[in-house]
Amino acid sequence: MDGKKTAIQVKDLEKAYKLYDKPSDRLKEALGFGRKKRYKEHYALKGVDMSIYQGETVGIIGTNGSGKSTILKIITGVLNPTKGSVNVNGRISALLELGAGFNMEYNGIENVYLNGTMIGFSKKEIDAKMDEILGFADIGDYVYQPVKTYSSGMFVRLAFAVAINIDPEILIVDEALSVGDVFFQAKCYHKFEEFKKMGKTIVFVSHDLGSISKYCDRVVLLNQGVKLGEGTPKEMIDAYKQVLVGQYPLPHEEDASLLDDEEIGAAAARAGKRHAGGENLEDSGAKEETMQDGAGEEDSTGACVNPDLLEYGTKQALIESYYITDEAGRNCSAVLKGGQCSIHMKVCFKEDICEPIFAFTIKNIKGVEITGTNTMVEKAFLEPVKAGSVKHIVFTQNLDLQGGEYLLSLGVTGYEKEDFTVYHRLYDVMNLTVISDKDTVGFYDTNSKIEVIDEQ
Q1: How far apart are CA 202 and CA 181, in angstroms?
Q2: Exposed/middle/buried for 105, CB within 10 Å: 0-12, 13-18, 19+?
Q3: Which of 62, 171, 258, 404 gives the lowest tally of CB atoms within 10 Å of its CB?
Q4: Which residue blocks in 150-232 are alpha helix, DSSP H?
């Protein structure tokens, strides 16, 4: 990022909360009775460093309780850090949790003035923007009612309208858009596009990985208050999925830091930097990311096997081979748009598994999941499998994707006593080329039949 100015600089950031076993301990601590420590410290953030540059759109992802909202509140000044520093260069507008910065007894217009004044605008400046704010919020006469009577959707409409129309240099959004209806969400994301073109800085937290992949230049992955890595949306989303299914083995010691876990650090570094030359998974059932050596190699069909293959799982079942065939049954890596193709994988079972689930996903080169399915959704296979068995799974479909390059991912998963388990997963294992002489709008062709009829 040489030559770019820093919008937000976070250094060694920590936020600790004191947890008391009972209210009387809190009271004794406040009154200074005794020297005994009556609380435990819980770190919502620990040792986080992050630089966000002007004009960037940065997403922050992680599981619940990972510290995403906490770091945004510290950046916006809502919370004070326990340790570390945050430097902000530019006027911030923030849309945090529902209701933040609003007085429930005020009506909508009064809250617009309240928010604008807190940010530093004069009444005259707010008056000049009022029509634009109310037009974007589009909640009608409810602007004259107390906001405590608003639905969650109306609330977020007004809050977002205020946040984006006060001409911020840095916009911070924390998951609040998820409560709006689909039309309002589309309106907000269109505004994101406008902001990006204007060179404004956007930081947002979302569980919508499609939006993260589409709008973000860079993504930061947090877990248990620790930064696991940062990189392109695709790289960090892949790592995040590992965290979701428990394939990052977290330390069990109460005071252990994820930063000290060499396995996690190595996996996050490989996910972020995509260096070739990692170790392979061992048959002992180790749960770690694998990077295979070498440049992309083509098989006899011309399909390119990914050298940066992301692989993990318990290895109770193994995907031993995989390939694609066309409608004539020939191995291929390119299919005609609208033509039939089959995705094959051979799975060897090392242990007895109750009702394994076989799955595939097709993503574009930006990492956006376009389509996919599994045997549980399709109700195609709901049987137990014995150790030593080998299954050949075939997914056959007409492929109406737009022309271009895609990446294929495969997986074998299941449930063990209600716990979701990944036995073997291969992300972006090989490429698939769709050849087309007619591309329509979007990811998929609906194959519309069109009639134009003269009306009398």
Answers
A1: 22
A2: exposed
A3: 404
A4: 152-164, 182-197, 209-215
Amino acid sitting at position 260: D
Q: What is the H or E stretch that residue 126 is in? A: helix 123-137
Measured CA distances, 157 to 18, 105, 112, 166, 184 (Å): 35, 18, 12, 15, 8
Nearest to 257 by CA among 2, 1, 41, 22: 41
Given CATH 3.40.630.30, say whether it is the number of domain 283-435.
no
Amino acid letter at 143? V
Q: Among 3.40.50.300, 3.40.640.10, 3.30.420.40, 3.20.20.30, what is the CATH number of 6-219?
A: 3.40.50.300
Amino acid in the structure at residue 251: P
- Cα–Cα nearest to 315, from 339, 285, 289: 285
Residues comprising the chain, all counted: 456
Angstrom distance (rounded) from CA 46 to CA 226: 6
CA atoms within 13 A on the CB side of 294: 7
Prediction pTM value: 0.66
